[in-house]
Amino acid sequence: MRHRWWLASTSFPVLAGTLGAMATMFNTCAVCQGWQEAVQPDANTTILSQPAWAVTLKAVSLAISATADFTLLLTMRLKLDVARGFIAAALLWCSSSAILFTVLGVVAGQPPSVKSPETWQYTQNFYYGIFAASLYIPMGILLTSYAGSVRTVQLSPKDRRSVEDTSIILRALTLAVFLLGGAAIYVPIEGWSLTDSLYWAVYTVLTVGIGNIAPKTHLGRSLLFPYATAGITSLGLFVASIASFTTKMGELHLRFELEQEGIHMHEMHLPRKADVLKARRIKSEFHRRHRWLVFSLSAIAWLLLWLVSARVFKGSERSQGWTYFDALYFTFVSLMTIGYGDLFPTSNFGKSFFVFWALLAVPVMTTLVGVMGEVGFRTVTYFLRRLWGSCPWKHHGRRFKALMRNRSLSRPPSRSLSHARPPSSYANIDLENQAHKHPDAHHPPDVSPTLQHPAQHDLQIGEEIEKLVDILKDDVMQVDLHYKWVQIIPLLSLEGDEELDFPEPRLSPGGHHRPQVVREVICVNKSATDRNKELLWMMKLLVEKLCSHLREEVRGDPKYKHLAGS
């Protein structure tokens, strides 16, 4: 239970640091200008002066939050004491939030005096202060939760480097500095306010392209070329670091799940065949569960960003007469980065909320699009195969394929493809039954029967390693990993190794093995990275088996007695 809570909180430090970059940017906007403005009858606005104490407290809040960001980075980068460093950063963020909320409460309770017919309203800076103060609290909670759970586990330096990855935080800070710095550059060039300029920079770098604010000077348009190019590049690096961190956390969770089952694949010199089969089952189930979990959470977050934010935009743009459908249309077009520009926020709250909302939507959309490619492809492939299997014309299709195959030119197949596509008779071989035969079950012949002579067995291992190397070298995509395991599992033990006790195979009512359609979808259509990792795992097991045989041979040969003794 303790390990599960720590695994659930492994992403908290990176998430808190990433949100900290955004909160610091918002806090900077809150400090730079006043929070109230007078609105004249001709719609022109004038920012009202703010008292010196408010400016001082906002500056102190910004300094404290920047110190918290630096403390977090220093703790993660230098691998300092987690409890002290993270709790100190959490306390600093909470202190900054308390100062901001104090100033917000005082300002909200003292409306300014304006002369009629002028009115007043809050500026975008005021709302940025609310966003920053609101973000600091969950950030502190995330760090405190992780600091409390990390004491229950023993982390190696490698695990700490994976969990406390500063690349995402540094790239998030770089993106925030780029957005805010670019906005500050365009303020004197185009005559915009800093908040309007930040609003333009966000929808430009995020490729939304609303277009209601655009550079009109020659210098501003000229600077757009390098600014947009560098900004989109920075965004791409940030998105790539999110994908990389997600992959690392998935591998870490899988390793801890294997260790909870008593399987330490990386610590054992040569794992037992039972551990290999069990680990493969756990890996397959974990990847399937992890893929659907990420897809479900990303889809829920996307729906919340779409539906809930549409309600917020409907309220903020009521002066434009937006309906809920108009807000749904605007948020969908913005989430998809289409950016027609026919609808856009004009209120101060609408613009500031758009910046906050768009920056949150970037990682959610990135994760959702990435996992949709995998889940969608596997789901469509699965149902198409099921549909094709139930169609009456599939037999005609097989006859047509056989006819075309007979009419094709006679040419030797490539070596890589010859072992990449297995014959259909091995499609339903059960790995467990391949390792330990059951006399009552129907078994197809072994692909690689266990040989009696050790030299022949070693030669067969070497040939299988060579085939795996060819697959990786030629980048063969159509590889049935299940079939490769059927070939490799018998090679991992010689006759005389300990007998394994596997459960009985699951048979269909007709007495035959159940077709593993899901296995085909999961294994044959794996991504290139997952496929290569599993192929490398096969090679590692074969190499370790071969080395163990060679060590035994060296120990048993009198010519190498002096080497064995040393």
From TrEMBL:
Main location class: membrane
Keywords from the named record: Ion channel, Ion transport, Membrane, Signal, Transmembrane, Transmembrane helix, Transport
Domain Potassium channel: residue ranges: 175-247, 302-375
Gene Ontology CC entries for this record: plasma membrane
GO molecular function, one term: potassium ion leak channel activity
Cross-referenced InterPro entries: 2pore_dom_K_chnl, K_chnl_dom
Signal peptide range in chain numbering: 1-16
Family listed: Belongs to the two pore domain potassium channel (TC 1.A.1.8) family.
Protein name in the entry: TOK2 potassium channel
Organism for this UniProt entry: Aspergillus ellipticus CBS 707.79
Taxonomic lineage from the root: Eukaryota, Fungi, Dikarya, Ascomycota, Pezizomycotina
